[in-house]
Design the sequence.
């Protein structure tokens, strides 16, 4: 892959066979020759973040791996990055759509599907700071479960993220966000409540082991049940 270096890892998630994941080598990788990322507002410092595996993403994948697959249920992962959770759901037979705004996400997803011998999976460009993108026009209001990890890296004062979630949620919908105890939850919580979502939280703290670092965070669960229009 031109302009940056990659690596492959075997990732173990309970409930599915191990997944082989191709990711960026480290946070120093960068390649935006045609300026596609810059036009989307992605800085050189933020550029590699999509292509790395993060602890919050692994915890989200584990949750999806333990959840029963329900026929007819549609799942959307937003800000998916390497889409580990989506790959877990897809391998288990769930109807999953992955979405992200990074211009290389679809390429890495296709490669990781190939490495694991999986059939193609639905992918949509999804940028909650932009209106009228592919996710908005193709799948608005269509999902039973919306999931994401480490999305609250900024305060959602404008309500853009909550609005994006609400537009893509069915009248009755559940939303999972794994958050590593960032301080930006209150604004997002208020916006979600205004859109009819009740919230509960679960601690996801993990103690350090010989091979893994400690993790402190929480699973935010939002549930809405409205009469369909």
Sequence:
């Amino acid at each position: 892959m031109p302009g940056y270096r990659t690596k492959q890892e075997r990732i173990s998630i309970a409930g599915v066979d191990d997944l082989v994941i191709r990711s960026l080598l480290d946070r120093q990788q960068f390649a935006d020759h045609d300026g596609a990322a810059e036009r989307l507002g992605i800085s050189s410092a933020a550029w590699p973040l999509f292509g790395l595996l993060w602890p919050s993403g692994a915890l989200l994948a584990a949750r999806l791996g333990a959840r029963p697959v329900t026929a007819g249920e549609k799942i959307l992962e937003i800000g998916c990055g390497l889409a580990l959770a989506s790959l877990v759901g897809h391998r288990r037979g769930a109807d999953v759509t992955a979405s992200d705004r990074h211009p290389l996400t679809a390429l890495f997803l296709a490669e990781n599907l190939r490495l694991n011998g999986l059939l193609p999976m639905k992918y949509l460009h999804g940028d909650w700071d932009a209106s009228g993108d592919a996710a908005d026009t193709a799948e608005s209001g269509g999902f039973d479960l919306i999931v994401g990890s480490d999305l609250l890296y900024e305060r959602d004062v404008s309500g853009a993220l909550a609005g994006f979630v609400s537009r893509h949620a069915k009248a009755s919908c559940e939303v999972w966000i794994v958050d590593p105890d960032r301080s930006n939850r209150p604004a997002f919580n208020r916006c979600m409540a205004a859109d009819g979502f009740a919230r509960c939280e679960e601690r996801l703290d993990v103690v350090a082991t010989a091979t893994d670092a400690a993790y402190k965070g929480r699973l935010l669960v939002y549930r809405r049940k409205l009469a369909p229009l």
